[in-house]
Design goal:
Chain A is of the alpha+beta class. Chain A has 17 helices and 10 strands. The longest helix of chain A is centred in the C-terminal third of the chain and has 56 residues, at about 365-420. Chain B has 7 helices and 9 strands.
Chain lengths: ~500, ~220
């Protein structure tokens, strides 16, 4: 008990010395709090982000690999075409087979085809088409115009009908709705993936005066068989609000339904052109290789590859990772310098207090208790200053964290812009980390609420104790080494 | 019955040749209720002998027995904070502490269990001729004589059997020296303490019951 009492007396009676030590510890505490808060919050953000954003893999055709194997010369043309035609398209059975893997959390797919309609007008940006449609409405050259439309407006998937019918296997597959690019504004999303229900684009609905609850009829362009769909909802496409070039949104003719509906249609006519886009949700980053191997074992053609959104996920957290690295480096440097400074101050302090050590030893204070007293003095000053520094750091950590992150993002954007300029595209953004690359849209973390929580306080306390022990080493060694008699003789 | 016994004590510095002793074959006995003076010329090893008796140094030869226990086998920190009191020529008080804090500190270190330590300290200070107003003064605000009285009061605070003093009157004027000597005489005669004083002073030697003279063996 008297050790604590002596420590308190010593602290209050030697204000100058302790204020100096206190200021140094205060600076360390504040900077440590800020860096720890930033570091911990960044860790949490990255972890939360990784948990909320799955690693999604999709299978795509590797044209480069195929073209690399093409034979050269005029005679080789036929054999190259044959080689290309021999590559089997992915089937629904393939996808379901691949989906039965222990490396996956789940999987989903979009099964698409295209159908025509005698009752619906296809929305198009083409003036020529509009005039023709006017003619069509008047009953002139109806069949001819339809065929011409098909030639002019074939979409990139080579689906030949006017209306793209996208069959989703689950709600998870509706990534555009999850991300907010599409939003149901009237009615609701389809509830049964087997029923002939659909959700249509608001522009298509306006053009054809369709309301929720109406029935639309689509027709197989090959067999002329018709299918009636109940419109359950109408969605708005907000994926490209700044588009000033096109009259309609890209999804204007896209009709959303369940994948089982497409299967039913294909059962009626398997010659219909279909397209399947699978998405495999992987258990973790570690299983990507194993899953790729499994796909090969299950017969995936060598010209198909598994692509993941891993790079995009990493890019999305890159700025915050950079801030975290900066904070960690800063923390380490601060602690090293602080330890050295405190050690030196303590060395000087101990030399000044040699006489005191001599007196304590001669009146029978053990070396251990004396060491404890000196350590306790520093610990008390440290804890007081850590508390003040922690409060100050808590106020500063949020604005500093956000400023660092802002600088980091700005630096990253400037770098992107410079690259873009090199391509003669002015400030237009290149395929940067935030852009969609066909798998899923990844949003970059652009703000952080650096919070001083219990983890930060515990870590700070650990740092305080560590610093105290390191800087007290001087006093510990000196007390063990000093001979009280020698000290007192020197004094005399 | 002796409380402290020095048997064939010898001391040489660690870096000194093997036959070069500061002193050798010292055989002294000290009893309670008596005042002893140890005198000798400068360099004769008086302070060294005192450091051996107080356990601050270890003797090269022989042994020191406190209450028939060999000092080498005792906890010397406990020995210093319970069994002996030390008074130095330069007082060796803590300057950042007040007079009363210095004395209470000693009591705390000795683990003295009394309810009102402050009252006890004031009584002790009174017994060495200091008033209450000295109690809360910082050490450096006291005169040499007052500091020495505080040092004596500190050494008495935990009621040790032996008081060992190194030139306690060396820095004091004659009048104060006489007063300090009176305190020591009182402690020996009335408080049954064993007082051992290392000194140059003839006055101290005259006041002592026994005088031991150290002769330097190095010469």
């Amino acid at each position: 008990m008297y050790i604590l009492k002596n420590s308190l007396i010593s602290i209050t009676r030697n204000k100058g010395r302790n204020i100096l030590i206190g200021i140094i510890i205060l600076v360390i505490a504040a900077s440590s709090t800020i860096t720890l808060a930033i570091r911990n919050t960044a860790n949490k953000l990255v972890k939360d982000y990784q948990e909320s954003n799955d690693i999604i893999g999709t299978i795509s055709f590797n044209r480069q690999q195929l073209s690399g194997k093409f034979q050269k010369g005029e005679d080789a043309k036929k054999s190259n075409i044959e080689a290309f035609n021999q590559i089997e398209q992915l089937t629904l059975e393939n996808i379901k087979n691949y989906g039965e893997s222990e490396y996956l959390k789940s999987y989903y797919y979009i099964f698409s085809t295209s159908l025509n309609s005698d009752t619906l007008t296809k929305a198009t940006d083409s003036f020529e088409n509009q005039i023709e449609n006017e003619g069509e409405n008047k009953g002139e050259n109806k069949g001819e115009n339809k065929e011409r439309d098909k030639e002019l407006f074939q979409n990139d998937r080579n689906l030949t009908g006017d209306f793209e019918l996208n069959g989703y296997s689950s709600y998870d597959a509706m990534t555009d709705f999850v991300s907010g690019a599409y939003k149901v504004t009237e009615g609701e999303m389809i509830t049964d993936f087997n029923n002939f229900e659909c959700v249509i684009n608001s522009e298509l609905a306006t053009l054809n005066e369709i309301s929720v609850g109406d029935t639309i009829t689509l027709k197989n362009p090959n067999t002329e068989k018709t299918y009636d769909f109940i419109v359950k909802g109408i969605y708005k496409d907000d994926s490209n609000p700044d588009d000033s070039v096109n009259m309609y949104s890209q999804s204007v003719n896209k009709i959303i339904t369940g994948s089982n509906v497409i299967e039913t249609i294909i059962e009626d006519d398997n010659t219909l052109v279909t397209n399947i886009t699978p998405s495999f949700i992987l258990q973790s980053e570690d299983v990507i290789e194993a899953f790729t191997e499994e796909l090969k074992e299950k017969g995936l053609n060598e010209y198909y590859t598994l692509n993941t959104n891993l790079d995009e996920l990493e890019n999305a957290t890159q700025s915050i990772e950079n801030v975290k690295t900066f904070a960690t480096t800063f923390l380490i440097i601060t602690l090293i310098i602080a330890s050295i400074v405190l050690f030196v101050i303590n060395m000087i302090n101990i030399r000044e207090r040699k006489y005191e050590i001599g007196v304590f030893r001669t009146i029978g204070v053990s070396k251990f208790k004396l060491t404890m007293q000196f350590v306790l003095e520093l610990l008390i000053v440290s804890i007081i200053m850590l508390c003040i520094g922690c409060i100050g750091g808590a106020f500063l950590s949020k604005p500093i964290g956000n400023q660092l992150l802002k600088n980091e993002i700005e630096a990253s954007e400037t770098a992107d812009k410079e690259i873009s300029n090199n391509f003669g595209r002015g400030g237009e953004k290149m395929g940067g980390p935030m852009e969609t690359r066909g798998i899923s849209k990844v949003q970059q973390i652009d703000s952080m609420e650096a919070v001083v929580d219990i983890h930060v306080i515990v870590q700070l306390l650990g740092i305080g104790i560590l610093l105290t022990i390191v800087s007290s080493l001087a006093s510990m060694i000196s007390i063990q080494r000093f001979s009280p008699l020698t000290i007192l003789k020197e004094r005399s | 019955m002796e409380i402290l016994k020095l048997e064939n004590i010898g001391y040489r510095y660690k870096d000194a040749p093997k036959d070069k002793y500061v002193f050798k074959n010292i055989n002294y006995e000290f009893e309670q209720g008596k005042m002893y003076a140890i005198k000798g010329k400068s360099g004769s090893g008086k302070t060294t002998l005192l450091s051996l008796i107080t356990g601050l140094e270890k003797c090269t030869e022989g042994k020191i027995l406190y209450d028939n226990q060999d000092l080498k086998k005792m906890n010397l920190d406990k020995y210093r904070n319970t069994d002996i009191g030390i008074v130095f020529q330069s007082y060796n008080l803590l300057p950042s502490f007040t007079a009363i804090e210095n004395i209470i500190l000693s009591m705390d270190v000795s683990n003295v269990k009394i309810k009102n330590k402050k009252q006890k300290v004031l009584e002790l200070m009174k017994s060495v001729g200091l008033s209450e107003e000295h109690a809360n003064r910082k050490i450096l605000k006291l005169s040499g004589g007052e500091q020495q009285r505080i040092a004596i009061a500190r050494s008495l605070s935990y009621n040790p059997k032996i008081i060992i003093a190194d030139e306690p009157t060396g820095n004091l004027d004659k009048e104060t020296e006489a007063e300090i000597l009176k305190i020591f005489e009182h402690l020996a005669k009335d408080e049954n303490k064993c007082i051992i004083i290392v000194t140059h002073s003839q006055k101290v030697c005259d006041a002592a019951d026994y005088v031991y003279e150290l002769v330097n063996n190095e010469k």
